[in-house]
Amino acid sequence: MSNPAAAPEVAREAQQPPAAAAYKLAKVYGKGETVVHALRGVSVEFAEGEFTAIMGPSGSGKSTLMHCLAGLDTASFGTAQIGSTELTGLNDKQMTKLRRDLIGFVFQSFNLVPTLTARENITLPLDIAGKKVDKEWMDAVVDRLGLADRLGHRPSELSGGQVQRVACARALVGRPQIIFGDEPTGNLDSRSSAEVLSILRATVDDFKQTVVIVTHDPRAASYADRVIFLADGQIVNDQRGLSTDDIYEYMKHLDEHPPAPVPVPDEQD
Amino acid sequence: MASTMRKVSLRNLAAHKLRLILTVLSVVLGTSFIAGALIFTSTMSNSFNGIFDKVAIGVDTQISPKTTDTNAYGGVESLGVPDSVIQQIQRDKDKLGVAQIVPGYQSMMTIADSKGKAIQTGGAPTMGASWVPKTQALDPDGATILPGGRAPNGPHEAVLNESAAKRADLKVGSRTKVVVSAGNAKPFEVKIVGLVDMAGDTSGYTEMDFDAATAKTLFTDGSHASMVQLGAVKGVSADTLKQRINKEFPGYKVQTGDEVRQENKDAINSFLQIFNYILLAFAAIGLIVGTFIIYNTFSMIVAQRVRELALLRAIGAGRGQVLRSVMLEAVVVGLFGSIVGLGVGTGLAAGLQALLSSTGTGLPSGSLVVGPAAIIACLVVGVVVTTVSAIAPARRASRVAPVEAMRESQTDGAASLKVRTIIAIVLAVLSAVALAIGASGKGGNAALMVGIGALGTIIAVVCGAPALARPVVGALGLVLAKPFGKLGQLARTNAIRNPRRTAATAFALTLGLMLVAIIGTLGASFKSTIDRAVNDEVKAPIMAIGTGGTGALPPAVSKEIKKVDGVDSVISIHGVEGTLNGKEVGGNSPSGDLTKAANIKLVKGSSKLTPNGLLTSDKAAKKYHWSVGEKVTFTSHFGKKATVQVVGIYKSSALLDPWQMGNAAYEKLTPPSMRADYVDLIMLDDGADSAAVQQKIEDATGSYLTVKVQTKEEFANSSAQQINQMLVVLYGMLGLALIIAVLGIINTLALSVVERKREIGMLRAVGMLRKQVRRTIYLESVLISIFGALLGMVLGVIIGWCLVRTFREWMAGITPVVPWGTVLFTLVAAAVCGVLAALWPGIRAARTKPLEAIADV
């Protein structure tokens, strides 16, 4: 129902197709009196090799947007695509394979299987897919993330920051089209946060990886090249090169003047 | 707060209906067998009692010999009550207060049905007896000839009880063949002149009555009565008459009519008791295993509710309140399960009754008796077992700290296994010692020792299985899950994640299959021993055995066989019964040269049995301290003595134990009316066609109705088949154990899946396909199942092996044989059950949405 041409507000900088994109994406929960519009026709593209942070207050729809883009949830209207693959109409099996082959995930918590070692967790998606692990690439990633001496440990023997770094390594080792982070530093202290964010930053800079994170922490967002602000299911701002202070300032402004008085779902961010 | 806590408990049950059903089901399985057993036996004994209440009416006193049991080979151990006693009572009639004297003559016999085959009685006896005309009968209504018939008169007329006539398709006017089991009687033809409606006519019981004179010659030696029933004159009570008779004839069994009836009832009840024991054994398995399932379920429920319980604690619920709340859940589950179990058990009893009466045994079909004993036992056991299994989890629940409500809950039961494992090791060592002691001995005490060892082993398994689970399941996983790569590894690590839970889940299989392995080992060992004994010890190519109620062959059969063309000689093995130094003993006496038909491994002396000689096995020789040349005196049950000299000692064998007596001595001890053969060993002429001769022997002995002619191999096989039939119970246990195990695994996996929802969601998010999730759960289930089955099989075979060793006391040369076929089949069956049990939890797990990993529970 929609195509890139019909979305002029999306900035198209490069000739290259975007790593991920959403066009007029809408998500509606419930019906009748209790209907809730989590997303109200969001269109956005994420360029290859860019670090994007999606921000917004609780219930703004930022998590829903990421879930729909990442094939974890299905949109009510509009389309989402990863690379050149359109997500609409994919069945569960195709969707699962898409997540497995094209997307890397870093969640806020419960990232790792507790019974497997760090190494086994890192190669888990590749093992499930029955793919060979690229030994050199694995070593490079593990080295870069400083996990070389933690590989034999179980998640319960790792610190919070180390767990998230293992999750990053798992996301990277399959060389996905895009990595999604859902509040990846939400459970970490500031030092560990900085550690994980600089790793994500480095994967973009060093490995040309595309990264999109959802966060409500301005400091986390400041590591990104581009910050998208959501409120009431709509994009209200989309800027590059913002500092932590800029983001604080904008957020404060957002809180003081909520753009639309529409009820929003009680979301888990 | 109390009512609030109750509300929380009850709502919690209602909110998880499926979990409730699974838990209730495990209670139902155990309690239904208890209820079924009790209802079935009380129904049966009630119907039988009703029938036996009509027996021996009008009898004030009955005189019978002290032992009336038929011996193993069909002979009656006593000749009965001599005519002299009857005459004396007749003389002293007035002094004793006797109004009526009715002597009875009876013995076991075989009767042909309309097709010429022996009437099937389904285990009930077929008796020949004397007909007492109504005018002489103590109870004129006890037996009535139905219209169209008349009383028997003369040696070729008889009357038959109505239900037997119906089964045999015989009518008034029919002619049929009959054979008296023991003695020298030959088959003869009788005419049915009447059908009798008699008291006690039930369950396949068959009775053919002749006139008193005929019965006396047919069934006794001609100078005895089987028993004498007396009616007292007015004014003399049954007890008084009994006391008087007892004083006069102290050597006999003297009973009142009531006592006779009670004896009949007791006999049938002790037969019914066997059913009761089997059903109660099933109930025990069901309950013990059910206990673990219930324990497991409550443990997991509590683990999952930690935050909820902590919240209740935080807002002020006391520890006692939390404890009571969980216990209340258990009581409700137990009560509900027991009530359903009672219903299912009633159905079970009804089904069993229908099944047994449809198999032609014609058991009485009284209405079901659901007595208070069944109801109380069922409810009490159900509730007690459930609450006891819930105590530990409930205590754990009450210890939940209020701060847990705020924390990410840690659901792994990580408490130390150290104490349990130490107890298990100590018990295992002690049990191993008990088993070793038992296995090195033989006989009853050794078997008891093995039993103690087995019990200790079971407790050791209960304590030690969690510690075993990690290494064993881990090793199994490495082998079995290897081909499945990462999925296999996940299944393997999941299966050992909570060893306590894995062990409790697997225990259903362990216990059930342990019993299967024990019985399987016994069966296989018996079979191979019989096979070997027949092959090694029997030279005769063809054997004849009896298939009648007594399993004996009338002696006349061997004479018929001798006449058959191609038969060189027949060696009959007679049964010998008597006493030795006041103790009852039994042995054999071969009619000819035993060495011709059997291999005797002589240890000492000569194998040539003289007419007054005794060949003994080394075992019997040792037991009685006999040596070659020694003289031994046997006494028959009616006072005749025979002294024999030990001529040789042979190596103990399954077929020839314990001793073989010379023929002259045998005849001295056993009057003609009591002679019966255990087996006829048939030697053929050189070059005779075995199959053709076998056919000819069958034709020649067909009129005896109960003679089975078999080759040596057929004999070994049919003995093995009898053992197979006994093993049917084994398959019942296997089935029950598997059903309960499946329920337990379903329960555990279903709850585990709920527990691991976030982890599964995360795996789905990073790309695990639904079918991969399912496969992981199946594999986990198979690993748990095989762990349980393996443990049960290994222990069962070891215990069975030890038990078989103790049987050397009773069965010479028995050596333990491991039933590899059964073991393999059982392991495969366990694996299949594992997959079946995992189907539904697997599907549930696969439905987990990836978002559930991110969502906050």
UniProtKB/TrEMBL annotation, chain A:
CDD domains attached to this UniProt entry: ABC_MJ0796_LolCDE_FtsE
InterPro entries, from UniProt?
A: AAA+_ATPase (IPR003593), ABC_transporter-like_ATP-bd (IPR003439), ABC_transpr_LolD-like (IPR015854), MacB-like_ATP-bd (IPR017911), P-loop_NTPase (IPR027417)
Membrane-spanning residues: none
Its name, as the record gives it, is ABC transporter ATP-binding protein
Task: Write one Pfam family the protein is assigned to.
Answer: ABC_tran
Cellular component (GO) terms are: membrane protein complex; plasma membrane
The cross-references to SMART domains, in alphabetical order and at most eight, read:
AAA
Q: Which UniProt keywords apply?
A: ATP-binding, Nucleotide-binding, Transport
Residue span(s) of domain ABC transporter: 23-257
Please give the organism. Answer: Flexivirga endophytica
The entry lists its GO molecular-function terms as: ATP binding; ATP hydrolysis activity; transmembrane transporter activity
Q: Does the keyword Nucleotide-binding apply?
A: yes
Q: Taxonomy-wise, where does this protein's organism fall, top ranks first?
A: Bacteria, Bacillati, Actinomycetota, Actinomycetes, Micrococcales
Q: Domain of life here? A: Bacteria
- NADP listed as a keyword: no
- SUPFAM superfamilies per UniProt: P-loop containing nucleoside triphosphate hydrolases
UniProtKB/TrEMBL annotation, chain B:
UniProt-annotated location(s)? Cell membrane
What's a single GO MF annotation on this record? Answer: transmembrane transporter activity
Entry's InterPro entries? ABC3_permease_C, MacB_PCD, Macrolide_Exporter_MacB
| rRNA-binding found in the keyword field | no
Q: Does the keyword ATP-binding apply?
A: no
Q: Where is each ABC3 transporter permease C-terminal domain found?
A: 281-401, 733-850
Q: How does it sit in the membrane?
A: Multi-pass membrane protein
Q: Which GO terms describe its cellular component?
A: plasma membrane
Q: Which Pfam families match?
A: FtsX, MacB_PCD
Domain MacB-like periplasmic core, by residue range, is 21-247, 502-699
What are the protein's UniProt keywords?
A: Cell membrane, Membrane, Transmembrane, Transmembrane helix
Q: Which residues cross the membrane?
A: 20-40, 274-295, 330-356, 368-392, 422-440, 452-481, 502-526, 728-754, 777-800, 820-840
Q: Which family does it belong to?
A: Belongs to the ABC-4 integral membrane protein family.
Indicate what this protein is called per its UniProt record: ABC transporter permease
What is the native source organism of this protein? Flexivirga endophytica
The lineage, from the top, is: Bacteria, Bacillati, Actinomycetota, Actinomycetes, Micrococcales
